[in-house]
Amino acid sequence: MMARKKKGLSERHEKILSFLRAHQKREGYPPTIREIGKATSISSTSVVNYYLDQLEKMGKIERQRKISRGIQLTELNPLGEMFKIPVAGRIVASAPIPVPASDFNYFDAESSVDIARTLLPTRGDQDELFALEVDGDSMIDAMVNDGDIVVMKSGGEPKNGDMVAVWLPERDETTLKYFYKEDNRYRLQPANPTMEAIYIDKDEALEIKGKVVMVIRQIDKTII
Amino acid sequence: MMARKKKGLSERHEKILSFLRAHQKREGYPPTIREIGKATSISSTSVVNYYLDQLEKMGKIERQRKISRGIQLTELNPLGEMFKIPVAGRIVASAPIPVPASDFNYFDAESSVDIARTLLPTRGDQDELFALEVDGDSMIDAMVNDGDIVVMKSGGEPKNGDMVAVWLPERDETTLKYFYKEDNRYRLQPANPTMEAIYIDKDEALEIKGKVVMVIRQIDKTII
DNA sequence: CTTGACGAAGAACGCATGTTCGGGTATTAT
DNA sequence: ATAATACCCGAACATGCGTTCTTCGTCAAG
Prior knowledge:
11 strands; two-stranded antiparallel sheet; homodimer; 2 domains; Umud Fragment, subunit A
């Protein structure tokens, strides 16, 4: 008896949208007009169609005319927005980083993490990405803890300000630091601002193993 | 002239599977039998159906009979792989946490992060999840830095060992700590093992705003 | 050679599903 | 009051699309 002419989404719009979400998650494919009708107590397919047209104009959904179940939520990233990144191994301060072979095209599903594309640096070959699990507390000066997952990108020259994983052969040490090239040396700055930078002479060996793109800490890993 | 009776996946099986993957990613809904046929150079729908039946027996796909486009890959987690988590605001040491209203069913696309379900705690209402962006260096003792994104879960009693966001009214302070209930006090343990715990008497006020589920640090946010 | 399983077509059949149309009833504007 | 909207049926219509039936060629075993 009301809720008319109220601009924005009406109750039916909302119900349809949430049904679309639910159905897609539950079944893996979009519903038909009639299914939407049943779920939202709309008896006529034409009314559903009427609302779908409105939702499309509002940009909430996208429709493929003439094809069955051709309805997608624009908000819902059509799966595929995800990137599977292989976990190449563990990273410890006392050992070099296990950089994966350059030709890993398919990887074991067991050892990979899924990251949404929206969280990854846009552009750039994401095939060069790999991940490492941090072993031990030795990276604490980089604000990285035991069990954290470090996503790295191999290849490419590090720019000033990049966080990189470096292997210092003369110290037998792997470390994560912000990288700065200075006149006669490299400055490796810890992420933790309360800690001091270390300096590496230009003639001292230094191997940049990759650029750190992201750090993930899963605190509650409850299974079940 | 060969490839017959070779158990396992034939070339056609592979082609169909990869087309299913591609189509789902590209269009957001499964293809029809005829579309599969066209894409894999199979002229007859019955042949496609023949292979689909085999793939279903092998457990590679799941079919909803009689339903158009009722084909799903089992490999691909049928329940939307990704979870959109609303970013409720920023978290600072000097102010309480902005916990979102309990009835946010739809949220602005602009302020949300996508997290793969595989990285989130299984089970449990994921509707209670929300995210906060860290403002400033004040959470360094929790190994959390400026700009990090903290994913939290509201509701539920904190268990010993959980990392929680607490608001200490008597100190006007928000902090992230591991939570331990001890005899006459609460012990709030920093994530950084080199730092000391703080103790809160049982009669001192303490508000647990949520349980920290995940911390994400995007280091390279390069756009384009 | 015959038989049967397998791979493949093509066409017909029929339910599934999007589209359209004529006809309603409120609410609001003119 | 009349007209203009916005909402809402229900039903017919026209494809879309899964299913099934018939036929055919090939290969391996009996």
